[in-house]
Amino acid sequence: MVKIEAIIKPFRLTEVQEALVDMGIQGMTVTEVKGFGRQKGHVEMYRGAEYQVDFVPKLQLTVVISENQAQAVMETIRDKAQTGKIGDGKIFVSNIEEVLRIRTGETGREAL
Predict the structure, then answer these.
(1) pLDDT tens digits, residue range 27-85?
(2) Which residues are modified to O-UMP-tyrosine (predicted)?
(3) What is the CA radius of gyration of the chain?
């Protein structure tokens, strides 16, 4: 099993979510996050005054899936989240050793 964490622009969530559901992904977690990378924030105007926004609002999408689905899920997220502009985000993949469904006690793939 692998965990895929994707940092995406908030307005791309619906397209990414719909595409993953269409692929058969049964669960995901979405968290509002703030951060910066090469984009390094931006300047905004508020009541005529400029101020620096150091952390840009993003969404972190997390899914845990079978290894054989990882490449397709990564490509789907990339295709649906990509705008071609700076700040599109990143995808991180890590191995998951074990999963346990609290309600039923199922483990491994059955718990997904």
Answers:
(1) 999 999 988 777 666 666 667 777 676 778 899 999 999 999 999 999 999 999 999 98
(2) 51
(3) 17
**Contact between residue 85 and residue 8 where contact means Cβ atoms under 8 Å apart:** no
The one-letter amino acid code at 55 reads F
Contact indicator for 112, 27 with CB cutoff of 8 Å:
yes
Distance in angstroms (rounded) separating the CA atoms of residues 104 and 74: 29
Q: Where are the alpha helices (DSSP H) in the chain?
A: 13-22, 70-81
Paired strand residues for 93: 4
Buried/exposed 59-97: b ≥16 CB within 10 Å, e otherwise? bbbebbbeeebbeebbebbeebbeeeeebbbebeeeeee
6: which 2 tokens?
């994707």
pTM for this structure? 0.84
